Amino acid sequence: MINLLTNAIKFSPNDSVVTVEVIQGSDNQISISVTDRGVGIPAEKMATLGSPFTQVHGPYINKEQGAGLGLAISKSLLEAMGGMIDFHSVEGQGTCVTVTLQAAGPNYAGGPSL
After folding, report:
1. Per-residue pLDDT tens digits for 36-78
2. From the CB of residue 51, how many other CB atoms can be counted at a distance below 10 Å?
3. Which residues on neighbouring strands pair with residue 95, listed in sequence order?
4. DSSP for 13-81?
5. b/e per residue, 15-30, with b = 16+ CB within 10 A?
6. What does the alpha-carbon distance between residue 103 and residue 114 come to, in Å, rounded to a whole number?
7. What's the pLDDT tens digit per position in 4-30?
8. What is the rounded distance in angstroms from the CA atom of residue 92 to the CA atom of residue 74?
9. Torsion over CA of 44, 49, 51 and 52, rounded to 10 degrees?
């Protein structure tokens, strides 16, 4: 979550809002979405998003760039826990990143979950 929030802030103008939404689905899954109104991700970068060393550059970035590993590590950890990460973005309008994991219910017997 820190990586998703940091990216949303990094690629947004100073006066914009980053929204976090948590939804529990009927299938006992939890989805957490982080949405910004920043620069968005170019369509040609969407296919490689979440791959190691992939970076998107934007006009609002005035901090150090990093190595392009944050989303790749986040994606790998989520998949190892049986979850998934989904990206929706429109260049110039913003990005929504949604993480989905199985919630631990009353009959939880162990294993990966949120």
Report:
1. 998 887 777 766 666 655 566 555 554 555 556 777 888 888 8
2. 13
3. 36, 89
4. -TT---EEEEEE-TTSEEEEEEEE-SS---HHHHTTTTSTT-----TT--S----S-HHHHHHHHHHHT
5. eeebeeeeeeeeeebb
6. 5
7. 898 888 888 888 899 999 999 878 899
8. 24
9. 100
pTM for the structure as a whole = 0.74
Tokens of 26: 């009927």
**Cα–Cα distances in angstroms (integers) from residue 76 to residues 2, 48, 107, in the given order:** 15, 14, 27
Write the DSSP symbol of residue 111: S
Q: Compute how many other C-beta atoms are within 10 angstroms of the C-beta atom of residue 4.
A: 22
95 or 46, which is more confident?
95
Q: Virtual CA dihedral for 39, 43, 48, 54, nearest 10 degrees?
A: -30
Q: Give me the phi and psi of 47, to 5 degrees please.
A: -65, -30
